[in-house]
Amino acid sequence: MNIFRLLGDLSHLLAVIILLLKIWKTRSCAGISGRSQILFAAVYTARYLDLVTSYISAYNTVMKIVFLVASYGTLYLMFLKFKATYDHNHDTFRIEFLVLPCVILALLINHDFSALEILWTFSIYLESVAILPQLFMVSKTGEAESITSHYLFALGTYRGLYLFNWIYRYYAEDHYDLIAIIAGIVQTVLYCDFFYLYITKVLKGKKLQLPA
Amino acid sequence: PETGEEHDEL
């Protein structure tokens, strides 16, 4: 564990908490893409199946459980409890265009052709693009609430910090995982446009509004 | 990592 990974995980945790609190406090999931949340639930489920096969550390186990519970909790709030507030008219990204290529890629490029390893690989590929329905939704409506922007910023920062973690581990531990690194770069790059808007608008107290 | 190595990150 190094500082970059710890901060990355905390940023990830913060994102998940911000999202849950936003929905809970406002009793509304307006502006949030249910499709991205479904993809994230699939990501955590596919990746954290190793909870039952291998023990890494108490930290690792607890965090995995937290992400799984928070993810399914978010789905429950969006699709059951506050279903009426779900903005499905603007949430129209076709997720099969993300899921199918990730399945194929995971079958073709993986470390080991075993069920758990392919599921892990699939989750890494899918996570890198899971935010696209949310970004598509923001671009479709042309704006995002500040709290949604904070959520996106924390979520994007998480994988960006993991990139530093991987650089550190490469030099300090001679450890590297090309699948995770390349997917992590793709994932972080997808947020760059949003980061720019966040820094130039949201941090100056303005609402995130895309130019018409 | 080597084949079969555990994934120790989240």
Automatic annotation (TrEMBL), chain A:
Keywords: Endoplasmic reticulum, ER-Golgi transport, Membrane, Protein transport, Receptor, Transmembrane, Transmembrane helix, Transport. Signal peptide: none annotated. InterPro entries: ER_ret_rcpt. It is found in: Endoplasmic reticulum membrane. The chain crosses the membrane at residues 62-80, 92-109, 115-138, 150-172, 178-199. GO terms for molecular function: ER retention sequence binding. The keyword Transmembrane helix applies. It is a multi-pass membrane protein. It comes from the Eukaryota. One of its GO terms (cellular component) is endoplasmic reticulum membrane. Its main location: endoplasmic reticulum. One of its GO terms (biological process) is protein retention in ER lumen. Pfam families: ER_lumen_recept (PF00810). Belongs to the ERD2 family. This is ER lumen protein-retaining receptor.
